[in-house]
Amino acid sequence: MMATHATAGHKRWLLLVALIALVVGLVAVALLRGPVVLDPDSPEGTVQEYLLAMSEARWEDALAVIHPDWAGSCEPEDLSAFAPTDFSAQLGQAGGFGGGVGGGFAEPPIDVGGDPLPIGEETIEVTITRDEGSGLGGGWNEFVLFELADVDDFWWIVNDPWPYFIWNCRG
Fold this sequence. Notes:
Elements: H1 2-32, H2 43-55, H3 59-63, H4 68-71, H5 76-80, E1 87-91, E2 122-130, E3 140-151, E4 154-157, H6 166-169
Antiparallel strand pairs: 1-2, 2-3, 3-4
């Protein structure tokens, strides 16, 4: 009878060790896994490419996903004047404010020549975080909406995207 009791205690101990090993393994996988790479042919992938290019100061690549009619006379250097490179971005709205993907602006904006610009068919919500863990109050979050349109089988950003610089170089 004593051997059975010792065996049951041994089994519980092994089960506990196995459970701890599983949790440690899952945490390690989560921490070691790189950032999620979204499909570049999707609206979310286009926004990801834009934000990655901005964070890495690849101004030409960032400008390359903004529809030329929206970008107007903007040059890659115009982005560098406004763009912080010390930020992180999260798809969706952080903090549980709700929202989701879908929709678009009700009316297309009109450019200087009077021709309608491409209108957003998809809205991608992103939370931009700056100065994480710095100072007394920590950082700050900014909720941003990216409007995208599928033009010639390419998802273009069709609004003045964060950090809102196009107004500065539009004729």
